[in-house]
Amino acid sequence: MNKLYRVLLRALNSWFSMVFVVAYCLGSFYFGQVGKDMNIFAASGAVMTVFGLFSMIRFTTIEKYLNQESIVTTSTGMTGPPLSSEKAERLKKESQKRARVRLQKELRSELIGISFTVTGTIIWAYGAYIPVL
Q1: How large a percentage of the chain has pLDDT more than 70?
Q2: Could you report the per-residue pLDDT of 14-29, keeping only the tens digit for each?
Q3: What is the domain extent for residue 116?
Q4: In whole angstroms, how far apart are CA 100 and each of 5, 24, 57, 105?
């Protein structure tokens, strides 16, 4: 199961997967027009929705599952020996910088996930009603 989650995490971290999902939807739109059946385009919304959901849980569930042992070992509650004020300030700034970067990645992933989920659901629900040109 760990291997599956690692592959899923690598796929979600790559721009290729996002481009693939969009290209898949555009391709299904094209083939729906050519084949005079927009149901294939509507079904592509399900793929986009699933990608969006996986993107939303990337940091909150998948990485937590894969890193659960390190999370447990670092959660000792020990603060360590007293430090000089300069060293403490430097460590505080580094920690805050890492936290900001992590938060930006999490928010970007969740916003992308929400966008794909909403768009995919709308396509899934109403894609078959697009007139064939």
Answers
A1: 89
A2: 788 889 889 999 999 9
A3: 2-71+83-129
A4: 25, 33, 19, 9
| pTM reported for the whole predicted model | 0.60
- Which are the contacts of 6, defined by CB distance < 8 A and separation ≥ 6? 66
Q: Does 21 map to a domain?
A: yes
Residue 118: both structure tokens together? 């909403």
Residues belonging to the chain: 133
Could you tell me the two tokens for 7? 């592959």
Q: Is the pLDDT of residue 54 over 90?
A: no
Instruction: Please give the Cα distance from 117 to 53 (Å, whole number).
Output: 6
Residue 78 lies inside a defined structural domain of this protein: no
Number of domains in the chain: 1
In a domain, 47, yes or no: yes
